[in-house]
Every structure is written in C-alpha cells, then in structure tokens.
C-alpha cells in the first residue's frame, strides 16, 4: 500500500488541508478501480466502509492477490469535515460559496481538439488530464475537485460512495453501463437502481461519463467509456459494523468478479429490484409547512394513490395526506420531520419516464 498526501489550500494564508489517497496493486493487466467516500462530508457510512476495505486490501496485497490497481479515498473532503457551527456539522455544501461539493465538475470536452478518430482509452485519458491541468484553480473547492477528478480520470471504474437521509441501499448509474451496474447491484443487494443518459449538474460520477460521451460526439467514434456510478449506502444514521461488513463483502465479491482481485469468482446474485429510469422518480413535496408523520417505510412498493404519511398542522390539527400519485418502489425519505412548503420529502422509483432536465435534487 502506498499512501499519498495531497496538500489542499485553506481559505486563509497559513492554512491547508491534507487529502489522503491509498493505492494498492500495480498495472499488471487488471482493471484500475477508483473508490471514494465522504465527498458530502456529513455522509459517514461510506467512510466507515472504505476504511474497512483499505485494511482488507492491505492484507490481500501482502498475499499477492491484487491483480489490477485500486485507488481508495476513504475521506474525500477534508474541508467539509471541518465545517461545524454551534455543534452541528454541515458537509454537503461549501461554507463559503454555498456550492454543493458534488456538483459542477468540469466539462473537458474541448480536449477533443487534441484527438482524432484514432483515439483510444489511453489517449483520451491523457487529453482529459491535460485539459484539467490547464484549468485555473481559484478556490479551495476548485482544488478539491481538481485533485479528486484527476485521480478518477485515470481509472477504468469509478465508485463514488454516498448515503441518503433515510433510505435503502441504492445506485445511480448510466444507461450505457446497465449490465455492469446491475452486477454491482446484485453483489450489494441494492434496493433500487436508477439509470439515465445524463443526470444534470455534473455530479462527480456523471461528469466522468459525460466527458467521454461528449468526446465521442465531437470525434464521431465509439469509446469504451469507464464505468462510473454512485453508491448510496442507506441513510446517514446507518453506521453499524454489521452493515459495513455486509457491504465490504459485497464489494470484495464484485472486485473478484471484475478481475481486480485474485480469488474465487462468484456470479452476481440477482438484484432485489430491476433497474428503473432516474427520470421516472416521483418526488413527494410538502404542500405547506408542518410536521411530517410517515406511515410507510423505505423498501415498500407503493401503488398509485397510496399514502406515505401525512403533514400535520400542529395548530389546528389538520392532516394533509402525502400520496404517491404514480406508485413504484419507495426507496428514500428525508429525516427532518419539520417541513417547509415545497420541501422534498420522499422519493419513489417508477418505471415510466416523465421528468426532464436536472434529475438530481440539491
């Protein structure tokens, strides 16, 4: 194992942050996998999981069982980890710019000017990394994005590990990789798998794919686009050794399956739910302010018109039903039980396609 410490600037002179990346294996014919957790710094289940995975990979490396390369960043946002106010941690948005740490990764497709129809994966990676290196780094968030994205651009497969508020384990991926995403969904027993061509907002995982897709269009060729997806490890409070051990086992089985590790290959189990379009997600919002009382749990299948809960007006006792108008697989809900008008509360994965534009919440 090789540990690399990346120095990131702080917001004032004399301050800085250290980002740690852990590197296993070497280029020996196996794929290169990049895994990170904690880009939203207040999402901790993935940090625990990748810490465990690093310890296991260190042991496997000593046994000579790593065939490819692995780059693991267990705590991908040291800036966000420091953002505490009056005892509360806020790690989803940058405290200075208010930007979401998982949005606005760069469009580097101008790198196509350096390529032609003979471009292969190695040439594309070189061109993208050169284009990234040429971009100015102005803010602390720029420096973080630059460092993480450069590591991801070198990989064949990218897993960005997050968690939701209260949820079952679910995945976000690209239609281009439906079969491969389905395999990981089976190993992790993901409750929902949400696919699209482009999610909008240039989140970390989607930006990797979109850069390659845009190069394809510019060059008029077909490229072997890296697998890149987001793993949502249930909810923010789901931090248990039991769950982390289960997820670690699923990841290790997947890494064996794709040839990064030298071990017994077990065929992917069937995922609990079939993949559905990200554009088919129904977002249930609060029609007015009040206290949220849920009556259904994530993991349930809802028919059209079924009740997920109600919104209570504590002054007059009025209860406004919260209904799933379209029905589908109820996979996530917001933990905060005090809602303001228009707040997103719950998410149901349907089989239709009815949304357009930016498909991700803030």
What's the gist of this structure?
26% of the residues lie in helices and 28% in strands.
Description:
This protein has 362 residues and is an alpha+beta fold. The protein has 2 domains: 2-257, Aminopeptidase, CATH 3.40.630; 276-349, OB fold (Dihydrolipoamide Acetyltransferase, E2P) (Beta Barrel), CATH 2.40.50. The chain is built from 7 helices and 20 strands. It has helices at residues 45-62, 78-81, 121-133, 140-153, 178-188, 204-219, 241-257; strands at residues 2-9, 16-25, 32-37, 69-73, 84-85, 88-89, 157-164, 166-167, 170-174, 192-196, 227-235, 276-277, 281-285, 290-294, 301-302, 306-312, 319-324, 328-333, 338-339, 344-349. It has a 9-stranded mixed β-sheet with strand order 1-2-4-3-7-11-9-10-12, sandwiched between helices. Strands 8, 13, 15, 18 and 20 form a 5-stranded antiparallel β-sheet that branches. Strands 17-16-14-19 form a 4-stranded antiparallel β-sheet, with no helix packed on it. Helix 1 (45-62) crosses helix 7 and helix 5 (178-188) packs across helix 7 (241-257). The protein is globular, with a radius of gyration of 21 Å. The two termini are 36 Å apart. The relative contact order is 0.13. The mean pLDDT is 96.
